[in-house]
Specification:
heterodimer, A: mainly alpha, 7 helices, about 75% helix, globular, B: alpha+beta, six-stranded antiparallel barrel, six-stranded antiparallel sheet, about 30% helix, about 20% strand
């Protein structure tokens, strides 16, 4: 495996980790009223559909753990949710990956709904109390909105960087 | 806008670690974190220490741009702002004189009453380098840690009031649990009336008040400050204002965690309560281990304790009392050392209660 191929292989995981770090930057255009978008999950979702060979379950687990660490969440919370949704996506990959246009956005919205529901359920059990739902709804909304401009960028990354460097595929 | 060339890698999906194993590992991590089996906090701070460089590097241009944009906005209001500040300065100078006079009087009264001086504390200023506003938690990360003397439990404040407290600190970073976080509980009191309560975070911008006395008379807009109960936080830190929201009693916080950039961490240690030093006449008879002391003056009949008095009996026969007395003797001899100086009310004019304000006052203010 060449260096360029190795570099290309790490891009999906690195994009997820970068997404987790960027989500934690103290920037808010809404004065903190809306939670930041779940950028790390966008990477997990996109690469697990487009290049599942570069986004194995271990990578989803790793990105989830990084998200847990940098967000201050209980360790394993996001990781469990990511792995669970990865399993769901794996079973329905043909349906999700074939979506285009608005359908691709709606597919991500459905995945966000699932990951938020999974996280909410785990958090309720973990903290053993009923948590407010509104922040989850807002996070789903803002993540879906951010996915619209990020999807072409991720597609470009796949077509122009990862694809050519991994030409053996 | 498709999801891409997904078919290229389908045949090799799965990776080396099976999905089931990843799921088991993630659940085990969750359980291990819950039961504190793993040193999660240490690992978290170690990672944050390393990621702190990234956060600071990413923050620098954003902060610079924000300040620059804010500065441009201020250019158009420089003249009116200057006029306003001049007026405010004049007003504050008058208030300063009154405050100094009152402080001098309070110091004088405290001296007369032999009051225990207020506990003072130092502070470290740090910058917010990361913020997590997840649906179920509210935390921020600061660029100061153990290397700067930051320890868990210390209060974090901004210019307006209390933000939260440190819950874990690394070498160069520290995590702050905000007052709005679900897991935040701090003892507060409602003023006026000094009504005790617990401020409970609920992941909204207005935490709620719990554990209040049933018949407490509350009014909208009452001040909420830290009570200092438990000795973890200093008393009197401004927190917010009371707001009624239906049946719930909420608090509109003075601080703004989302806008906070520079914060201060208070190095507060609750004073260790010490026994008052007994006078020589109050000391019991010397124990066998203690060096012989000169005989105490003969008490009069009125002050001689009757053997039937159990309290007096235990005081005079308790060997622990004698040991305490023995250990205090050298401390008293070393009273010149400020760290080991016993708490003598008259002499303990604490380091924070310096005499500088009084020195700036005219002499006649002592007589007010």
């Amino acid at each position: 495996m060449s260096v360029s191929s190795l570099f290309a292989a790490t891009i999906p995981v690195l994009s997820g980790i970068l997404g987790a770090l960027v989500s934690s930057l103290p920037i808010s255009l809404t004065g903190g009223t809306i939670p930041p978008p779940l950028l790390s999950f966008m990477a997990v979702y996109f690469w697990s559909l487009v290049r599942p060979d570069l986004m194995p379950p271990a990578a989803a687990l790793l990105i989830g753990i990084v998200q847990d660490f940098v967000s201050g969440s209980p360790v394993g919370l996001w990781a469990t949710a990511y792995v669970a949704i990865y399993a769901v996506l794996g079973g329905q990959r043909d349906s999700f990956a074939g979506l285009a246009g608005i359908g691709a956005i709606l597919g991500f919205a459905l995945a966000m709904l699932l990951v938020s529901a999974a996280t909410y359920g785990i958090a309720v059990v973990y903290f053993w109390r009923v948590l407010p739902l509104m922040p989850h709804v807002l996070q789903i909304a803002v993540s879906v909105l951010c996915y619209v401009p990020l999807l072409p960028m991720l597609n470009g990354l796949q077509h122009k960087v990862v694809g050519p460097l991994r030409s053996e595929f | 806008m498709t999801n891409g060339t997904w078919r290229t890698g389908r045949a090799r999906s799965g990776g080396r670690v099976p999905l089931l194993l990843a799921g088991i590992i993630s659940v085990l991590l969750l359980i291990a974190g819950k039961v504190h089996f793993l040193p999660v906090d240490r690992a978290r701070t170690a990672l944050t220490d390393r990621a702190g460089t990234f956060f600071q590097a990413a923050n620098a241009p954003i902060l610079a741009a924000t300040r620059w944009l804010t500065g441009i906005g201020h250019i158009f209001s420089v003249y009116s702002e200057n006029q306003r500040l001049r007026e405010e300065n004049t007003r504050l100078a008058q208030w300063r004189g009154a405050a100094l006079a009152l402080q001098n009087r309070v110091d004088h009264y405290r001296l007369l009453l032999k009051a225990v001086p207020d506990v003072r504390y130092s502070a470290v200023t740090a910058q917010v380098i990361a913020r997590s506003s997840q649906p179920f938690l509210e935390t921020i990360v600061l660029n100061a840690g153990k290397a700067s003397g930051i320890n868990p439990g210390e209060a974090v404040i901004d210019a307006r009031g209390m933000l939260g407290r440190i819950y874990v600190s690394g070498e160069h970073t520290a995590w702050v649990i905000l007052l709005t976080d679900l897991n935040s509980r701090i003892p507060v009191e409602i003023r006026p009336g000094n009504i005790p309560a617990i401020l409970t975070g609920n992941n909204t911008d207005q935490p709620v008040l719990d554990a209040m006395p049933q018949n407490a008379k509350l009014r909208d807009g009452a001040d909420i400050v830290t009570s200092g109960d438990g000795g973890l936080l200093p008393a009197g830190l401004p927190v917010g204002m009371l707001r009624f929201d239906g049946k719930q009693t909420k608090v509109a916080l003075y601080s703004d965690p989302m806008a906070a950039v520079d914060v201060r961490i208070l190095d507060y240690r609750a004073p260790i309560e010490q026994m008052p030093k007994p006078a020589d006449a109050d000391l019991p008879a010397p124990a066998s281990l203690s060096p012989p002391l000169p005989p105490p003056p003969q008490p009069s009949e009125a002050t001689v304790a009757q053997p039937s008095d159990p309290a007096t009996l235990s005081l005079t026969t308790n060997p622990a009392t004698a040991l305490v007395r023995k250990s205090r003797t050298p401390t008293r001899q070393r009273s010149a050392d400020p760290d080991t100086r016993p708490r003598v009310p008259i002499a303990t004019h604490g380091p924070g209660q310096d005499s500088a304000p009084a020195a700036e006052l005219p002499d006649d203010q002592d007589n007010q």
